[in-house]
Design goal:
The complex is a heterodimer of chains A (about 475) and B (about 170).
Chain A: H1 3-16, H2 25-37, H3 43-69, H4 84-108, H5 118-138, H6 165-198, H7 202-211, H8 219-252, H9 264-290, H10 299-329, H11 333-344, H12 348-360, H13 368-371, H14 374-401, H15 416-439, H16 445-463
Chain B: E1 2-4, H1 7-20, E2 25-28, H2 36-39, H3 47-73, H4 86-112, E3 136-140, H5 149-158, E4 163-164
The chains are: A mainly alpha (about 475), B alpha+beta (about 170).
Chain lengths: ~475, ~170
């Protein structure tokens, strides 16, 4: 065969790798556990953590102010009773969904490329859900009676309104946080055993020993472990779909145009996966660069994630088009006005930025040159995340500020406390994430070993 | 305790040991080796049954949690709508099913595995810390009826491991 064809073939084969060749069980184990046990802390990590802690402190101040004075410190009013708080809540929960998708759904689909990214993606989910959970608490008018939303027998025989999506949300998000945490911890168990065995200092050994529950890698244990992982994956996949569906029901249950729409559940789930993969890319690309993980998080991973982002972006585009079409086709003057108001009203600039970020921007991902360039992907991922935040903002604010009766119309202007609370949750997220990459293995070591094993088997099979 | 370098070796060794008549043994590996659990004599796990029971508890519990207050405890007549509005009870029922299934899967797995068990005699074996790194260990327990210290040691040596060692309790 001619040389050009061979070169192309070699290039294709190279991009097919999800793990750089030449790794052994020991090399992958040591490489990842060294990052926790032996590598020095580094000024970049410390600087990043310091910045994150600064933003976390901002969050403390912002939340303390809201709890002391009341939600009036935010820009909300009548008619716009929900502002940044719910925008941020939906944004954060949406981001979490990609982590579960990678861990659970790709496990069920037996996709090898999930191995290098699922640990930190699942960590991202947990931290995102933790950030999201702050907002329903903070946005209450009377946060001191927050427990009234939980079902407990009380002296007046009262119960929460089980028919309300707001209560469904409580169950859905709590379940999601718990299941994600469990899935993550189960995945960590064998790796905590590895860290315990390789730790040099006694105190480190003891701590990892306790949290690893004495894992010793027994074949019997592995058998149950694999069954547990498979079951959790099977449970988590429908959970992901149901949680964001329930979140979308918070809006669909209302009557106002732009909210009361059956398109919301699939639209929100697709949007969640879209922004979630964007966040995974935002995290994976710097991690890959600064921790030299190119062997594990290869171009193939970035390529796949970019393609998934493009695919979900197209679903979101389709949803916007359908929403617009149905609004006009329905002949309903209120739905039509809602759409026109988004495009030409006071928040039009926000709307068109949103359209650019979510629909136009990611179209560059059709080009493989862009998909193969980590920094281009990083830029696109930030654009997508901004777009998805703006989408929730547009849905909530434009839906509320002008609905049926013109005399009720109003405007929403965010205050500094709105911004501080949002940036503060970014601080919480990154603080948790920085701590995670310092103290826990950011790639699933035992799964990497399994990948080495399978890769060896495959090349042995090919050689014969 | 015999130490091996590849999963194929330990699987082969475990099968040979089983053929030889040893029953009380276990394999230790840094990642799950397909077929090893069966070779050392472990059957199917009961975990799936535990999870199904957990899930059913969640489903029934979740539905009952909503049904009782709305039908018996404090029914609210809202425009004559049915008290047992079961379609609106589905989301919470579904979430609690998943929650209870997941909790029973994880705690079931941990409990069935006998964890937490910070100490186990095999940790005393030399080099056992490699079991969580890149080596595979086959351990034949002294409780096995066929166990005879020298004969078992010789048998294990015949499987060509990297090392054969004794483990104290």
């Amino acid at each position: 065969m001619d040389p050009v064809e061979t070169d192309n073939r070699a290039a294709v084969v190279e991009i097919e790798e999800v793990l750089a060749p030449g790794h052994t069980y020991r090399s992958v184990s040591d490489r990842v556990s060294d990052m926790v046990l032996t590598w020095p802390v580094g000024y970049r990590w410390a600087a990043g953590l310091a910045l994150a802690l600064g933003l976390l402190f901002t969050l403390h101040i912002a939340l303390a102010w809201v709890f002391t004075i009341g939600v009036g410190v935010w820009g909300i009013n009548i008619p716009v009773g929900w502002g940044f708080a719910i925008t941020n809540f939906v944004w954060w929960i949406g981001i979490g969904h990609a982590g579960t998708l990678i861990s659970a759904f790709l496990l069920l689909m037996r996709q090898k490329w999930r191995t290098s990214i699922n640990r930190f993606a699942e960590a991202m989910t947990i931290f995102a859900v933790a950030c999201a959970g702050l907002f329903p608490l903070a946005h209450m008018g009377r946060p001191w009676v927050f427990w009234w939303i939980l079902p407990y027998p009380d002296t007046m025989g009262l119960w929460p309104q089980f028919r309300s999506p707001l209560v469904w949300d409580v169950f859905a998000v709590s379940t999601y946080l718990t299941v994600s945490l469990l899935f993550w911890y189960v995945g960590l168990l064998p790796d905590l055993g590895t860290l315990r065995d390789r730790a040099k200092k006694r105190i480190t050994k003891i701590i990892y020993g306790i949290v690893s529950l004495g894992w010793r890698g027994s074949a019997e244990h592995w058998s149950r472990y694999e069954m547990c992982s498979l079951l959790l994956a099977g449970l988590a996949t429908p959970l992901v779909v149901s949680v964001h569906t329930v979140v979308s029901f918070d809006f669909t249950i209302a009557l106002i145009p732009g909210w009361h729409s059956t398109i919301f559940p699939p639209y929100f789930v697709a949007g969640a996966i879209y922004s979630g993969f964007a966040m995974v890319l935002t995290l994976a690309i710097p991690l890959r660069k600064y921790y030299h993980l190119e062997d594990f998080v290869t171009m193939k991973h970035l390529d796949f994630m970019a393609k998934l982002m493009l695919a979900t972006g197209l679903v979101v585009t389709y949803s916007y088009l359908m929403e617009t079409f149905m609004a006009f086709y329905s002949g309903n003057p209120f739905d039509r006005y809602m759409m026109l108001n988004r495009m030409t009203g006071p928040y039009a600039k926000v709307f068109w930025t949103l359209i650019f970020c979510n629909l136009v921007g990611p179209q560059v991902l059709w080009l493989s040159k862009i998909r193969r360039s980590p920094w281009a992907l990083f830029a696109v991922s930030l654009v997508v995340q901004t777009g998805m935040w703006l989408e929730r903002f547009v849905i909530i604010i434009t839906g509320l500020h002008r609905d049926f009766l013109p005399s009720s119309w109003g405007m929403f202007y965010p205050t500094r406390w709105d911004y501080m609370t949002f940036l503060g949750t970014l601080g919480l997220f990154f603080t948790l994430f920085y701590l995670f990459i310092r103290f826990l293995p950011m790639i699933a070591i035992h799964e990497l070993r399994d990948l080495v094993h399978k890769t060896n088997e495959e090349s042995a099979a090919v050689a014969h | 305790m015999a130490e091996f370098e590849t999963p194929e070796e330990i699987l082969h060794a475990a099968e040979r040991a089983r053929a030889e008549g040893y029953r009380r043994m276990d394999g230790y590996s840094p990642f799950p080796v397909e077929g090893l659990a069966e070779a050392v004599g472990f059957g199917k796990t009961k975990l799936s049954w535990i999870v199904i029971c957990g899930g059913l508890t969640g489903a029934c519990g979740g539905f009952f949690l909503q049904w009782w207050p709305n039908v018996i405890g404090y029914p609210l007549n809202i425009g004559g709508k049915p008290y047992n509005s079961w379609p609106s009870f589905i989301p919470i029922t579904f979430e609690l099913t998943i929650l209870f299934s997941a909790l029973s899967a994880v705690f079931g797995m941990i409990a069935l595995n006998g964890l937490p068990q910070p100490y186990h005699p095999v940790f005393n074996a030399p080099n056992f810390d490699l079991a969580s790194r890149d080596r595979f260990f086959l351990c034949i327990e002294a409780r096995d009826p066929k166990f005879n210290l020298q004969a078992t040691k010789d048998f294990l040596a015949s499987l060509e491991p990297v090392d054969v060692t004794e483990v104290d309790n």
